[in-house]
Write the structure tokens for this entry.
Amino acid sequence: MGVGAQLSVTDLRRSTRHPVDFRVIGEHRQLGDVHLHIVNLSAHGFMAQADQGGSPVSGLNRGERLVIRLPQVGRIEAHLIWNTEDRAGFQFERIIRANEFSTLIDTLQPNPRLRARR
């Protein structure tokens, strides 16, 4: 039996991503607090970007888990899927329900012109 998360990302890449500007502190079981700047979000995951160069998730490897807290959703676990020099992609451990996600986007994306039409 393999170690780490069993990740399935091939079909999830087509999910609509919403631009946001949200800073959150993730909890990692060994590293403790990890500061993230979330720049886009879908019901399946999010992308974080580094503020001043460097990696947004230095010290993390693919498949490692963070727990973050999102408005309207609460605590949710996310797995690191990919990491470049200045960006990182995470997949949520569960899909955020449509009604919760709509409220979350309304909270994080106050400019109605940036919101996807529903």
